[in-house]
Amino acid sequence: MKKLLVIILILLSSSISIAQSITQPASRKFELNVSGQACSGFVLNGFTSTDILLASIGFINPPTGTTFSLTTTTGLTPSSGFTLSGNKSKLVFTGTQANINAALATLKINTGTVAGSVQVSVSATINPTGFYYNPINGHFYKPIPTGAYYTAARAASLLTTFKGQTGYLVTITSADEDAFIYANIPQSNIWFALTDEITEGIWIIDAGPEKGTIIKTQNGQTAGNVAGQYNNWAANEPNNSGNEDYPVTKWGGSQWNDLPNEVTAPYVIEYGTWSNPDSQTFTDFYSANVINPIDVPTSKVNFYFSSNMNPSQWSVKAYTAGGVTPVSTTTGLTLGTNGSVVNTSDFVKSKTDMVIYLSNLPSTTLTNLYWSVLTVGDAYLAFQELANRGLSGTESNTFTNGVQFLNGDIDGNNVFDEKDSYRILQHVIGSQTLIVSTWSESNLFRFVKKSTFDAITKANWKTTNTPYSATYPLAVDATINDYVYDVVVALKGDVNLSHTIGQNAQTTQSTNRTMNLTTPMEISTYILSELVDGKVVVSIKVNTLGQLLKGVQLKLNYDSDILKYENTEYITSGNPINFSNDIGNFINFGSLIYNGNGLLNNNTEYKLTFTPKETITNTIGLTSIEGIDAINVGGSTLKIKNL
Ligand SMILES: [Ca+2]
Ligand SMILES: [Ca+2]
Ligand SMILES: [Ca+2]
Ligand SMILES: [Ca+2]
User: Fold this and answer.
1) The pTM is what?
2) What does the pLDDT read at residue 212?
3) Ligand 4 centre from 611 Cα, in Å?
4) Any bridge partners for residue 487, and if so which?
5) What ligand is nearest to the CA atom of residue 196?
6) What is the per-residue pLDDT across 140-184, written as a single tens digit (0 to 9) for each?
7) DSSP labels for 140-199?
8) Which CATH class name applies to 15-133+284-293?
9) For residue 219, how far is its CA from the centre of ligand 2 (angstroms)?
10) Cα(237) to centroid of ligand 3, in Å?
11) Smaller CB count within 10 Å for the chain: N or C?
12) Topology of domain 139-273, per CATH?
């Protein structure tokens, strides 16, 4: 029973005593020349609620112009020489743990124009009554109002300890320290450690860390004052009047006089041997610090374009959200390799409402781009997906991931159905453009945070909330240094992901389709152009190279200054939809079998006829062929070789 009681008592006592400490925030980067940047996160722990604590906040080696301020100072009392309000680089005060923590939570950093790093240091200790803390050197001072002879005061001081430090008769080695004594120690005519008892007129500090230092070699107010040492004698002192070998401060004012040992005077005991308060080694004195860089924040935006897109065609600007004024003074930031942008001046933390705006391409450029984005492969896959939904009509087989649904939902109603597929088809064959009513980036592009993009599945694509937009909002995170934005550009209608990167890909497309290793995944085309009865006839033949070909799409560039397009003659099998669209200086043409069992075979041929606008004698250099897309029965994209 007794044993049990002991255990209970141990448990009780260990649960009651909480270790005293200060926790510090993680390092964060501060922006140059910005006021009021949050520096919260310092927290005092473990002191009892009624303890009056002495606390300090200070910078170590701050870049010029760096200050801090506290918004809340309720219940705090500033130490001598400090005010709670305003911007400062050091503050010492007293208060309870709760009041100090409330203040620390509102700590704000103000930076100037000088970069560097600042160490923010917070310290706290229980502040016993009767002790005075000098934040300049980090020493404590205890006045002894009871009068004593100098030599007795000097000896008695050495017998005391405070927070693990042996005391010594106070030494006054700077104007700051003298002023601190003057302001804080209530008594007057206070003994301090200095004597010329060995050699008359040679004044030597005889206690503390400065013991043995000669500060003056001759009596008289300034005579023999040693350069670099602090002296503060009253007029005509020291004068050794009747053999005076020991000094007092606060003598008839703020200055010093030499007096004989046999005067009973109050004195002060000093604790601490360091000159930097941050070097203190007091016991039960707690401190914590964090080093924060102050710099121009660098943010990087990586736009993940597909390898079939050319990032150098695009540029971005930083705008204020909803605004038309670019934050940047530059005319636009050119996208680098893989579409990355680095900016050190636009992406600043104070501008949390910024967006990145993908620069406008001319609408004709966008339109032309879409003749290669939406192709026979997209239309074929879209209809395959509809056809392969199984008995219940909901089992997706052709689309392998949610991004294909996201891109395929042309009308944006969160359902992928026949309407969407037909819109893609109608775009490809060119009878109508039903993809967008107006050609603009805002109608065609989605900017999707890459982590979101990679997590899009068949199950959640409807709820990803990734609207079409030409802008990407930059929610600049002030706690992250050198923030990187990874943004995927997804394109409307691109269900075969020819122009949208694959999920979890870095910069190149991954199609995740079955490869037939024995048959090369390619077809070839052969072009012949000739003058027939004054007209230019361009004949393109397709060799399927053994592929079960369902669709082919080609592009014939022509010199529109010399040639006028007339028509296309199709020689095709398998009952395809054949199409030719004159875009102005190229013809987008091909065939697609999106339903039924037919196949395009090696007899597939297109004859495009042009009328010359001037007399020509040959067709050299007037036309050229490009393969846009080809797809086989399995939905695999085929490479097109031109012979
Ligand atoms: Ca001193
Ligand atoms: Ca003397
Ligand atoms: Ca004197
Ligand atoms: Ca596509």
Assistant:
1) 0.60
2) 98
3) 32
4) 303, 449
5) 2
6) 999 999 999 999 999 999 999 999 999 999 999 999 899 889 987
7) EEEEEEEEE-HHHHHHHHTT-EETTEE-EE----SHHHHHHHHHH---SSEE-S-B-SSS
8) mainly beta
9) 8
10) 6
11) N
12) Mannose-Binding Protein A; Chain A (3.10.100)
